[in-house]
Design brief:
Layout (H helix, E strand, L loop, with lengths): L5 H15 L2 H19 L7 H6 L14 E8 L12 H5 L7 H4 L20 E4 L4 E4 L3 H4 L5 E8 L5 H10 L9 H9 L9 E6 L23 E3 L17 H22 L2 H23 L7 H7 L8 H13 L4 E7 L15 H22 L6 E6 L3 E2 L18 E2 L3 E6 L7 E3 L1 E2 L6 E3 L2 E2 H11 L8 E4 L2 E4 L14
Parallel strand pairs: 1-7, 1-8, 4-12, 4-15, 5-6, 5-7
Antiparallel strand pairs: 2-3, 4-11, 8-11, 9-10, 13-14, 16-17
Helix pairs in contact: 1-9, 9-10, 12-13
């Protein structure tokens, strides 16, 4: 078999395409051409392939940036802040008593019915570090990094169901269709590594989060900014490897021919998504060389693997956290982790705060504590934002699904108050920000909406959340929708 000529391949592909064009397709494309011409007449612009590829190139932030990259660890299902971050000794004293009527009057809960009992915190807290930050004994590894942590105890959201709350936390809006936080960051800053995706998504826990792939979608932004799902078992990125019988040279020739066809289509129709397609094909080709090396955890020392609790070749949260550090080292801008299984209602043994929760916190604490320490030792923590938390909080009441007290310890969804931690990237280490009442039901100081957290994260990356906009359907959209403020007290 003689080596394929890219020009001949392209000519044959065009002839075959023309042979197969139907009358309906012809009329559709004719309409697109008219629309493209009209758009150009109204001042629309066309990007060439080089210009489009530059949309992924690293750009200077408009503000002074403290952070260059983000590792966002979303604990999907929402862990209980009362068992991890928000110490409530008074609630322990009230354990088993009926909750006040005022707590449930006019309120809507996901599962609580009638008048439930109060549930005291199940684990002891202690003070840590020079700051005296109070953390649960479920977090011994994270507690060792307490002077690097900014603990926010006063977050709130309007959403009390998982999917809408996750969407609001990650895209700024409770309905799917908006660009995700990682996509906005890529749109504003580009990527520092042209051979790897700038926005990578890692999943653990056995299933996707409730919000699904919409959580890392680019929405109405060009699709080149969407998150790329990666894994630590098998091929690092699904469908990246060449099929049997196709080597690198043949793949290169096929891409060259396909590129000619796509560029011709773009010249005809002016659709920027055609250039997105070209850029994604080329990135996939480059990733065939770079992705396997970046994701090869066996290159790490045995001490590092043990520190994180990672086991190469397996699918696990610890592997994903270690992989996130490797990707951050290689210039990936935004690494998003979702770990499913934190929805501890207590309706069954696998959602019991007394047992199942302990298992989840053990591996989460070990890996996150190792990540923060590792980044600091490598000189990366100062310009890396590490964000850890869920989509809402948990009630101080013992869930009584359908009016009957659950058989195991569990808490219902609570959007009015929850906690998260942020380390690095110019956030103030050793700071405990905001507070809730004596049983953790309402915020009493430092009330902070999820849009405020988003605005502050963008600010640390050098992006002004009110100026980072994209025109769509006649309106300038932004991540923080119509709200959001930078919380300067969190910034060092």
């Amino acid at each position: 078999m003689h080596p394929a000529d890219p020009n001949r391949l392209a000519e044959e592909a065009v002839r075959e395409h023309l042979r197969l064009v139907t009358r309906r397709q012809f009329l559709r494309n004719a309409g697109l051409c008219i629309g493209a011409a009209a758009f150009a007449g109204l001042g629309g612009t066309r990007l060439n392939a080089v210009e489009h590829r530059n949309t992924l190139a690293a750009r200077t932030a408009p503000l002074r940036a403290k952070a260059r990259r983000v590792i966002y660890i979303h604990l999907a299902g929402a862990p209980s802040q009362l068992e991890l971050f928000d110490h409530k000794p008074e609630l322990r004293k009230l354990h088993g008593e009926l909750c006040p009527e005022s707590f449930i009057a006019g309120k809507t809960f996901a599962f609580i019915k009638g008048r439930p009992k109060l549930l005291g915190p199940l684990y002891p807290f202690a003070k840590h570090g020079a700051s005296g930050m109070e953390l649960s004994d479920r977090l011994p590894s994270i507690a060792q990094q307490s002077d690097e942590l900014c603990l926010i105890r006063s977050l709130w959201t309007e959403q009390f169901n998982h999917a809408p709350a996750q969407l609001l936390a990650q895209t700024g809006f409770q309905i799917s269709g908006r660009p995700s936080l990682g996509s906005w960051v890529m749109y504003g800053l580009g990527s520092e590594n042209e051979n790897l995706p700038g926005f990578i998504v890692l999943l653990s826990g056995g299933t996707k989060p409730d919000g699904g792939k919409a959580l890392w979608s680019s929405g109405f932004l060009p699709s080149v900014y969407q998150g790329v799902q990666c894994q630590t078992v098998g091929n690092p990125i699904p469908y990246l490897a060449n099929p049997a019988g196709v080597d690198g040279d043949l793949r290169r020739q096929a891409l060259d021919a396909l590129g000619q066809i796509n560029r011709a289509e773009h010249e005809q129709l002016g659709d920027p998504e055609t250039l997105t397609r070209i850029a994604q094909y080329e990135l996939a080709f480059r990733m065939q060389m770079s992705a396997p090396e970046a994701t090869e955890l066996s290159q790490e020392s045995s001490a590092t693997l043990a520190r994180y609790g990672a086991e190469p070749g397996k699918e696990s949260f610890a592997n994903n956290v270690l992989l996130a550090r490797r990707l951050a080292e290689r210039g990936c801008r935004f690494i998003q982790l979702y770990d499913w299984g934190w929805d501890m209602h207590g309706e069954a043994a696998h959602t019991d705060l007394a047992k199942a929760f302990t298992s989840k916190t053990h591996y989460m604490d070990k890996a996150v504590g190792a990540l923060i320490a590792d980044l600091r030792e490598r000189g990366m923590l100062d310009d890396t934002l590490v964000v850890v938390g869920g989509e809402f909080g948990r009630t101080p009441m013992w869930e009584n699904r359908s009016g009957a007290q659950n058989a195991f310890f569990g808490r219902d969804h609570h959007p009015a108050a929850f906690s998260m931690i942020v380390a690095g990237g110019g956030f103030r280490g050793g700071l405990t920000y905001g507070s809730t009442d004596e049983i953790g039901y309402e915020i009493v100081d430092g009330k902070m909406h999820v849009h405020d957290l988003q605005a502050t994260l963008l600010h640390q990356l050098g992006l002004e959340h009110e100026q980072l906009t994209y025109r769509y359907q006649g309106r300038d959209f932004r991540l923080t929708d119509t709200g959001g403020r930078v919380i300067s007290d969190l910034i060092a």
